[in-house]
Amino acid sequence: MALSDVTRAMLQQAIRLYLEEAYGSAPLPGKVQSRLAWPAEGENLAELAAAEVFERSPPDVPPAACQRIRLRLGNPRYPHMKLGVDRVPDSQDWVFVVDCHDRQLVAAAPHQERAAIEALIRGNNEVKGRIERRWTEAGLPTFERYIRGRLARRSP
Questions:
Q1: Is residue 87 within a helix (H) or strand (E), and if so which, with residue range?
Q2: What is the pLDDT of residues 63-108, one digit of tens each?
Q3: I need a surface site. Which of 16, 36, 38, 154 has the fewest CB within 10 A?
Q4: How many domains does the chain have?
């Protein structure tokens, strides 16, 4: 799916499912709420991702030329988790992903903190799995759906 085909409605659905799994009934932090206040204009992610709340990689190119787009939504235990939209390598297709953004913590953690960090990573991965499963079930473009589609096209 092209970036311009990721509609505002699809992005809002992905965010709603993310927040349901990450926060449940817990209140959203103020920073997360402020990241959800976008301009009224823009009907697709290619237009919306130009807003400051989105992190783009590389940051100095238009959204359609990026490889990754991120929206930091966090979870109650870890504020750095992000809703992501990644370009599938060697294609113009984009898929929703959850970026836990936590692997570097293990290498930097003192030995006595490693068990707590590993527990945090396991928890983040559980949340990531639930969110991505909900996205796939909802028909949103995920890497799982991308691979299934590719395999279906190759089947005789």
A1: strand 82-87
A2: 989 999 999 999 999 999 999 999 999 888 999 999 987 766 666 6
A3: 154
A4: 1
Q: Angle 8-23/114-137 helices, nearest 10 degrees?
A: 140
DSSP string, 11-45: HHHHHHHHHHHHHTTSPPPHHHHHHT---S--SBH
DSSP class of residue 142 equals B
* Residue 156 in domain: no
The C-alpha atoms of residue 117 and residue 104 are separated, in whole angstroms, by: 10
Residue-number span of the structural domain to which 89 is assigned: 3-150
Dist. CA 10–CA 96, nearest whole Å: 10
Q: 155 lies in a domain? A: no
Q: 104-132 pLDDT, tens per residue?
A: 666 666 777 778 888 888 999 999 999 99
At 35, which amino acid appears? R
Q: List, in sequence order, every residue forming a beta bridge with 97; answer none if it has no partner.
A: 84
